[in-house]
């Protein structure tokens, strides 16, 4: 749904693998950004349940529960299904068809070279990830993105390589499939028609750009074609498309939208992650939250209450950076460095702020849990809406691949 004040045509898509319940790291790192984006752009947010299967295919017993729980968490923090399209990947089976068709034009090496492929295999050694599905993980992600012709994809830096691959896939698809029959032949004929000096300039620009990515050469070639006084419209299009290495644009190359957010570390100061057991889950009982923050490690130099400390060496300070105003931050800085405050005093306002943040989220989550039909219909409606867009793209893709039989 596009509202009045969203720039027309700028579309954002992002997804999350369904995995256990979301935590404050997700909230500060991802969801708060989505909350802002949903008012500025046409947004599609989806649960990547097939992506969850690529690594968890051997135990699917929690898949459904995790899917609903993720949707509830999104809605509880304020993702608004009236302004953003919220859906579930497997409810839009067109994603699988696009994945299949894209697989035809995807060189194996491109997938094998995606850094997360080897990294995750190393990290999850206990699992057999030498599967076709896991190798295809980033291609499925590319299909997710290209399906909606998204201009921008908000992701963390671990996902930038996937967006980069998506761009390459779009380019290759447009190049291989986005052209009229005999495109190559007709383009070559148009080059010959240029004749003499112009033909030489074009050929030179073509080689420099396509072999070395020389952008100046591309610009020079394009300028020459644009300024050419007597080219047919069709030949001009062909020559411009041919030099860029594209035919017609069917799939749109997306940009990665890196979010500059202050990182909230986990309770032990490392990155907040379920695998480190250092999370504050959005649905965590608030007494447990208080207890866990009280147990947080602090600057190891503060052995006794009278020892001064350094907030830069303390994860609690990272929490203050997010939860405290300037005045309280100064209170921490001075109090810590002069041993004017104790660590228990220092943690108290953090505990209060985290709980104040969680309470309304938990109240909304409880309400949603009590109304499963409502959540179900939000997902059904969102998935239908997503499917309408997906069908349009698939029509074009099928046609480009010679599959639109009459
Ligand atoms: N791979 C992403 C993650 O690990 C999830 C994802 C799947 C995604 N498809 C996407 C993210 C498309 C952005 C766009 O969280
Ligand atoms: Fe950390 Fe605060 Fe203790 Fe300083 S006073 S070590 S910032 S908890």
* Radius of gyration using CA atoms only: 26 Å
What is the string of SSEs from the N terminus onward? Answer: EHEHHEHHHHHEHHHHHEHHHHH
Specify the CATH architecture of the largest domain.
Answer: 3-Layer(aba) Sandwich
Task: Identify low-pLDDT runs.
Answer: none
Q: Major beta sheet, specifics?
A: 3 strands, parallel
CATH class category name of the largest domain: Alpha Beta
Overall average pLDDT:
93
Helix-strand makeup class: mainly alpha
How many helices? The count is 18
**What is the CA-CA span between the terminal residues?**
32 Å
- Give the number of DSSP strands: 5
Estimate percent helicity.
55-70%
Query: How large a portion of the residues is in β-strands, by DSSP E?
Result: 5-15%
Shape: elongated
Oligomer: single chain
Question: Mind telling me the CATH superfamily name of the largest domain?
Answer: HUPs
Query: What is the name of the CATH topology of the largest domain?
Result: Rossmann fold
Number of structurally distinct domains: 3
